[in-house]
Amino acid sequence: MFERDYIKRLIQQFAEVVEKIVLFKKRQDWQQVQMVIDVSAKQLLGLNPDLIDNMDSSSLTSMFQISDETDFEKCYILGRLLMEQAFIYENTKTDEHKVYKTYQKSFDLLIKALEGNEIRNKENIQAVVNCCDSLLQYKLDDNSLIKIYNFYKNEAFFADAENIVLLLLKEKTAGSRELARNYYNELLLLSDADLEKGNLPRDEVLEGLEKLNIINEVNH
Fold it and tell me: Where are the alpha helices (DSSP H) in the chain?
């Protein structure tokens, strides 16, 4: 009961933080947004902003793990704060690599947070979608693209997942043809209703598979 009350209070406090951030972002008051992020990191997570900035996503995630249990709420909160931090960097002409790395850390933490059933809701999944949209503005390595592809596929954003598949094919990423073939064949096992819901109708799946076969013939 105590733990449930603590989680409820933590989520409520973070909701208030988000309201403040939204308000200051509308005013483009980046200094105030930064202050809210820094204070929230200390008060809600017990983390120093400089520590967050210097640690990678794996190390940050491990701070919220005790034995085999993960504090998914804190993972989510830090992921959201990092997404706002990256947004500030974008709007204050910070080094592009730093912006990208901050979005990447945000994505990793948010994906980890979604492993918790209490975190899995439409709003929080949309937060990860927003983070992906921001990440895809940059030149991503193959590993990052595969992570985004897996997120889209697992959440049934089939058209978005296909866009990543096509990007991997365009970049001639190793194993991309096999990945694409497996993806389209997996989709063909789904119902028309599920495919429509994922914005990738069956005829488009078949078209994608046909184009893939043509590409394979050309390359052989």
Answer: 2-26, 30-45, 49-54, 57-62, 72-91, 96-113, 122-135, 142-154, 158-170, 176-188, 192-197, 202-218
User: What pTM does this model have?
Assistant: 0.91
CB-based contacts of 17: which residues, under 8 Å, 6+ apart? 36, 40, 44
The pLDDT tens digits for 22-37 are 999 999 999 999 999 9
Can you tell me the distance from the alpha carbon of 197 to that of 204, in angstroms, rounded to the nearest whole number? Answer: 13
Domains of the chain listed by start with CATH number: 1-139 (1.25.40), 141-220 (no CATH)
HSE (side-chain half, CA atoms, 13 Å) at 31: 0
Average pLDDT, the chain: 92
Contact 60, 111 (CB under 8 A): no
Residue that the structure tokens 């895809």 belong to: 136
* 190 secondary structure, DSSP code: S
Q: Produce one character per residue of 173-205: b if its CB has 16 or more CB atoms within 10 Å, e if not.
A: beebbebbbebbeebeebeeeebeebebeeebb
